[in-house]
Amino acid sequence: MKNLNPIGIFDSGLGGLTVAKQIQKRLPKESIIYYGDTARVPYGSKSKDTIIKFTREAVSFLKSHNAKCIVVACNTASALALPIVKNEFDIPMIGVINPGAKAAAKKTSSGKVGVIATTATINSDAYTNAIRDINNKITVYSQPCPLFVPLVEEGWGDKPASELIIKEYLSPLKTAKVDTLVLGCTHYPLLAKQIEKFMTGNVSLVDSATTCSNDLNALLEEKKLLSDNTNANSTFFVTDMAARFSELGAKFLGKPLNAIKVVGNE
After folding, report:
1. Over the stretch 11-54, which tens digit does the pLDDT of each residue have?
2. Which of 21, 43, 123, 197 is most exposed, with minimal Cβ within 10 Å?
């Protein structure tokens, strides 16, 4: 029997749509239900206890809508909440930290890996620990980049201000000569061209969305949850600002968003 229930995807806002895009590409027969907590974004500057609370609410919401598994597409929630919340619910869950760490450890040839993310993700050391668990000879250089999220959401990726901010944040990583750079926030792939330009092409970027979709496929196979639905669909729930989510979300997902619904925090 194939399981036609949807995959639940949770993010603090828009960024998880980059993960949803790769999941749709990798698993086109899977329906998706997306929950973006746009009323309380960003998570990266909030406390661990608050992030855990919000994550519990999101998982409960997705479970109530018959999700068969949950992808925590938010790096901050993956780092701080997933290790705790996954043991509280009877539903398979996957985050974006471990897939990104595996890809980075595999790609680096110099053993120097950079990680850029929100302040909360960097302070958690989640990527550093995950990468070094795979290969303890790798040196991880971490850099919080809190201004990247508002730059992306304002559509300022090509503005001169973005070049200055990228230079300010990434200069230490360039000086350290990292050969692999983990984009540890789901917003950051939308700055990939500008980041590559500053790093002068001498670095491999790791977008955990792609590796997460591969790990999700393996999880669904293992749990016998794969769908063969030829009419797969996507439904989007947000906690605020549906019009803005629709407008900006099309840039993240690469196509127009339909069926956006506003819900209260549950």
Report:
1. 998 889 999 999 999 999 999 999 999 999 888 889 999 999 99
2. 197
By C-alpha distance, which of 214, 153, 203, 210 is closest to 178?
203
CB-based contacts of 45: which residues, under 8 Å, 6+ apart? 118, 119, 120, 146
The amino acid occupying position 118 is T
**Can you spell out the DSSP letters for 162-191?**
HHHHHHHHHHHHHHTT-SEEEE-STTGGGG
- Taking the whole predicted model, whether its pTM rises above 0.70 is answered as yes
10 Å CB burial of residue 246 (0-12, 13-18, 19+) is middle
Phi then psi dihedrals of residue 17, to 5 deg: -65, -25
Specify the CATH architecture of the domain 97-208: 3-Layer(aba) Sandwich (3.40)
For residue 127, the surrounding DSSP H or E stretch is helix 126-134
Q: For position 195, what pLDDT does the model report?
A: 96
Rounding to the nearest 10 degrees, give the CA dihedral for residues 97, 41, 186, 31. 90
Provide the CA 117 distance to its chain's centre, in angstroms: 10
* 7-95+210-262: CATH architecture: 3-Layer(aba) Sandwich (3.40)
Do the Cβ atoms of 230 and 168 come closer than 8 Å?
A: no
Instruction: Cite the active site residues.
Output: 74, 185
CA 53: distance to chain centroid? 18
Place of tokens 């993960």: 19
